[in-house]
Amino acid sequence: MVNLEGKGGMKREGQRSLLEKAIEIILFVGALSSIIIVFLIIAYMSLEAYPALNLDFLLGWFWDPKKEMFGIFQIIVSTLYVGVGAILITTAIGVPTAIFLAEFCPRNVRNVIKPSIELLVGIPTIVLGFFGLMVVIPFIRDNFGGWGTSVLAGWMILAIMSLPHVISISEDALRAVPNSYKEAALALGATRWQTVKKVLLPYAKTGILASVLLALGRVMGETMAVTMVIGNPRVAWIPTSILDRAKVLTSTILLDWSYVEIPSMHYHSLFGIGLVLFFIVALIDVTATYMVKRGVIK
Amino acid sequence: MIGAQKEELIIKIILWIVSLISVSSFFVIFLYMFINGSRVISLEFLTTAPNPIFWTGGIFPQIIGSLYLVALCTVIAAPLGILTAIYLSEYAVDNLITKIARFFIVTLAGIPTIVIGLFGLAFLAYRLNLGISLFSAGVALSFLTIPWTITVSEEAMRAVPKEYREAALALGATRWQTTWHIVLKTAAPWIMTGILLGIGKALGETTIPLMCGGSGLETFIPRSLFEPVGSLPVYTFIFATQGNVSSAYDRAFGGSLVLILMFLLISVSSLIIRNRYQKKMRT
Q1: Residue of A24, A194, A285 lying closest to B110 (CB–CB)
Q2: Which fold has domain B64-282?
């Protein structure tokens, strides 16, 4: 508010602009907080991981803490195996569901399903893991043999976990297609499915792919649900069948932590795993974000 | 054209079936948890402390502990997140610094919880000597919700029409007055919704409180910030994986159901707030 009362007013004006400056500085410092936190995490993790970081760690074949062998190559491959498999299931179920919700679903059915899926986006993963433990694992054990704890169980639980994300974001992407495009196709005599296939999906491709990538990052970084159903053998191996148990990056940190000696090579290696996991997930996330931005500009 | 119509029909049937599978998977889980959990939940279960020796008892300290954790996390994350969002949406021009800040916000949002947990344990709890405590876990949890709060708040503020700001500025309001009285006030319900969803996220998080908060079996409510704290997800995890007796599984069901109900309560109330204000804005 401009003050027109002479000297006193001028003074208050000065104070006010000082206040404005102070606020701007506070805001700026606040905005730096994320940068500081990320730096702190990376710096500290690197510091602790440093003694373990070498090629033997990244490309080493064997992980066996009892024999002082800390190679995580097989764990990385297992992580990708579990993560990508789960995401393929999610995509196979989630994208058709998104298409259904966006195009084929009766309005009143959609009004029930859409909000409930949005509610499920943040569902505590411990609940899913527990469900896997009590239902999925016995089911696999009884019907397919093996231990029950397996890559397959991991796929199922992780797929369920990431479904709401993929459905929700993909549906938004499909709905973002301008109506005129859709109407033009329909007016040309295309059926609904032809419209979806030739117009909607190509247009929404980037958004859907980004949602799938983001889900992949989340799935590979997920700890609780995976640890409960995946089996976690003490020695790492690349699972040969989907009924095999597996050891992934997250579960290795969580479970090995309970008996690690501080400090030891094992301890440093766990931080190394954390760092590797961080970079894998960050790479996926940044790619997805970049894709979305480019898609929007296009 | 008959081919196309047939294709359409087949696709429609497939889509119905696939959607039914994906949606019903959640209903199955909810139903399963509800049926098994509701047998366990009683007044006694909700108001007594667990007995970790016989895997019996209730979850009172865990409920309170979870609420403490979430409260501490929100007290840290909400102001920081909103400050950052104000800076990004109202003050900063698009320059190198904001680009870097945004990049780091995306990165922070993507950090796996196990990494945050490991950092919280090794740095906050051991290096800074804060101990395995309510404080360490609350701070680590806030790392999880800060980026979320920023994104939601920024979106909310950007949705405020430009005319509002211009009108305020034209009346001689300073930038901060405009932000405080106009932008924040208009965006408040949406920011509130975002913070509530962040609370839901923090509430269900297991790894971080497990690594830097406590064992989940605590029989007491923390009296200071630097005491270990039990929380519902950790309790459920420990009872589900370590108990191996039916009373432990029962209690894990009870814990899951209480957790789900708390989570749904938060999510539904955030939806209600949003819808209410959306209607208000329209009229």
Answers
A1: A285
A2: MetI-like fold (1.10.3720)
Least trusted range by pLDDT, from A5-19, A101-115, B203-217, B269-283: A5-19
Q: Which residue in chain A is spatially nearest to B172 when comparing CA positions?
A: A1
- Chain-chain contact of B119 with A2 (C-beta, under 8 angstroms): no
Q: Are B230 and B61 in contact (CB under 8 A)?
A: yes
Q: Does A135 touch chain B if contact means CB atoms closer than 8 Å?
A: yes
Asked if A97's CB is within 8 angstroms of B101's CB, the reply is no
How many Å lie between the alpha carbon of A162 and the closest alpha carbon of chain B? 11
Strand ranges (E), chain B: 50-51, 56-57
How many beta-carbon pairs under 8 angstroms link A with B?
240
Closest residue on chain B to A16 (Cα): B174
Which residues does chain B have within 8 Å of residue A220's beta carbon, measured at their own beta carbons?
112
Residue B278 has pLDDT above 80, yes or no: no
Q: Report the distance separating Cα A82 and Cα A218, nearest Å.
A: 12
ipTM of the complex: 0.90
Give per-residue pLDDT as tens, B11-55.
Answer: 889 898 988 888 888 888 889 999 999 998 888 888 888 887 788
C-alpha to C-alpha distance for B110 and A282, rounded to whole angstroms: 6
Lowest mean pLDDT among A13-22, A134-143, B140-149: A13-22
- How many Å apart are CA A249 and CA A273, to the nearest integer? 6
Give rounded-to-5 percent helix, strand, coil for chain A: 80, 0, 20
B93 vs B97: CA distance, rounded Å: 9
Quick check: A280 contacting B, CB < 8 Å?
A: no
Residue A77 half-sphere exposure toward CB, CA atoms < 13 A: 15
Mean pLDDT, residues A91-102: 92
The pLDDT value recorded for residue A295 is: 63
Average pLDDT of span B186-212: 90
For A:50-89, CB contacts with B below 8 A are none
Using CB atoms, which residue from A116, A160, A224 is nearest to B25? A160
Residues 6+ apart with CB under 8 A from A220: A79, A80, A82, A83, A248, A249, A250, A277, A280, A281, A284, B112
What is the distance in angstroms between the Cα of B108 and the nearest Cα belonging to chain A?
6
Q: Which residue has the tokens 């209600």?
A: B272
Residues 6+ apart with CB under 8 A from A287: A213
Asked whether A211 and A289 are in contact (CB, 8 A), the reply is no
Give residue for tokens 């196990």.
B114
* % of chain B surpassing 90 pLDDT: 36
- AA letter at B103: F
Q: Do B29 and A160 touch (CB under 8 A)?
A: yes
Domain ranges of chain B: 64-282
Give the residue on A whose Cα is nearest the Cα of B115. Answer: A274
pLDDT value for A281: 92
pLDDT-derived band of residue B199, with 50, 70 and 90 as boundaries? Answer: very high
B87 touches chain A (CB under 8 A): yes
Give dist(CA B163, CA B209) in Å, integer. 45
